Amino acid sequence: MQAHTENLFRHVEFLTSIYPYRNYKNIESLHKAADYIEDGLKKNGLPTTRQKWEAKENFYENIIASYQPGKRKRFIIGAHYDVYKEQPGADDNASSIAGLLEMARMLTENGFELDYGIDFVAFCLEEPPFFKKKEMGSYIHAKSVDNEDKDYIGMIALEMIGYYRREKETAKEIASNSNRLIVSGIKKYDGFNKKISKLLKTKGKIDSRRLSYADDYQNNGPSDHRNYWQFDVPAVMVIGTGGHGNPNYHKASDTIETLDFEIMSDAVNSIAHALFNFSK
């Protein structure tokens, strides 16, 4: 079971080619992205639904696909497909949508029989001006699952899993620049956070570090995972890093050429392993 670099590249290439860029103002661009995501999930044999809501007099959509939909016990993994202002958003967050689609392929092609179902969710409206507001796609989804007779055991929000660093010189720089996956959550769910981080390390190709912040820390939840806590679903953000963050974050320079698809494949393999083996 391996992620294919060519698939990851193809997904990012399509999403970053959409113009005007897929921010909240460009509704047709968002529709193109949503159609592409839904088509990719359907090609993997997953039933899909669209979750629609209104914000600023426009309609937006989450794309939801379910593996083993009959299972009451469920795990959610999601990523947002909108971008901030005028930028292609290769790492933020086409990389994560690519990872989401590739994990769906890996899961369905292997036909794993899990004791829980998995919901793949592509969110809209993660970025400002909706961030931290109830119009966020992840808030819409989190609120909807709170009303269901299901047992949601956890949630992973994928963020920026495509940018890493290869240059390593001194031992000090190796330690600070090492490519890893950061698991970010709150202390209330530290047991869940720890388990995800441990599972990510199991494949051995990429390291993981866990960050569990105080529940009331002001800068908690810089992504879609934040909206699940209030509905008592353990949730973390998993983000890739080369040690210093991505210098192209929220800039026009966040292009496909800046991503490392080989290391990204290792990251997707590790995340898939954690997702498919959570309850073992």
List the helices and strands and how they pair.
Elements: H1 5-17, H2 27-43, E1 48-55, E2 58-67, E3 73-80, H3 90-110, E4 117-123, H4 137-146, E5 151-159, H5 171-177, E6 180-186, H6 190-201, E7 207-213, H7 226-229, E8 235-241, H8 261-276
Parallel strand pairs: 3-4, 3-5, 5-8, 6-7
Antiparallel strand pairs: 1-2, 2-4, 6-8
Helix pairs in contact: 1-3, 1-8, 3-8, 6-8
Q: How would you describe what is shown here?
A:
The chain has a single domain (5-166, 176-276), classed as Zn peptidases (Aminopeptidase), CATH 3.40.630.10. It contains 8 helices and 8 strands; from the N terminus they run ααβββαβαβαβαβαβα. It is globular, with a radius of gyration of 17 Å. It has an 8-stranded mixed beta sheet, sandwiched between helices. The protein starts with a helix and ends with a helix. Helix 1 (5-17) packs across helix 8. Helix 6 (190-201) links the parallel strand 6 and strand 7. The longest helix has 21 residues, at 90-110. By secondary structure, it is of the alpha/beta class.
